[in-house]
Amino acid sequence: MRTIDGKDVFTDLAELVDPAHTALLLIDMQHDFVDPAGLFGQLGINLSMYEQTRPRLAALLGAARDRGVLIMHVQNTALPDRMSDSPAQIRFNLRMHASARGDGPALRYTVPGTPGHEFVPELAPAPGELVVSKFRSSAFWGTNLQLLLRSNGVKTVVVAGCTTEGCVESTARDAMFSDHYVVVAADCVGSDDKAQHDAAMLLMRHRFDLATSPEISAVWQSHDA
Predict the structure, then answer these.
(1) What's the CA gap between 186 and 213, in Å, rounded?
(2) Could you give the CA distance from residue 129 to residue 70 in angstroms, rounded to a whole number?
(3) Amino acid 10: pLDDT
(4) What distance separates the 2 farthest-apart alpha carbons in the chain?
(5) In terms of Cα–Cα distance, which of 61, 60, 67, 17 is closest to 225?
(6) Among residues 85, 134, 162, 209, which one is catalytic?
(7) Are strands 209-211 and 7-9 parallel, antiparallel or unpaired?
């Protein structure tokens, strides 16, 4: 910790991810995005990065549960009949994976009541864990996430999930703008586009603290449950 102009600032990982004031945000680990049977998998999108990140995320989630870290599952949601999609959002969905979509309609994914909206089994919420529904890339935009973080005394968010260049980075930026410390679990974020993942990681490592899941888990394991 350093004191700068009278303000105490966390500077090392042990301070940043202390379980007493940390929340783990699991972003959009849903079938449509990361599972071969989901929408993106059916379109032929390359999901190979998630084969690596999913077991790491499951291990990080287990470590958080063991040490009582506040866990929040962020669930991307799109209402039926595009009721939550503005024209600008539909334009975004037209651009997303346009080559795989071909002449088909703008992508429609993670609709409540469909299998694609559900979390993959190994990352599903346990009883009592918080679920935040979001309708845009950032988990802060139009949700109750900030209220939940503030109500539970959270100072640091550990961000993990998908996609690196999209919902992960958008959420990380808004977390910092909301005056939370941000630690990106560097080996627990992934994308279906390696080039975009690498570009986002380049940007984020200059803006946020990055740490691996074993490094974060080691800090949590050093505290009593």
Answers:
(1) 7
(2) 8
(3) 98
(4) 59
(5) 67
(6) 134
(7) unpaired
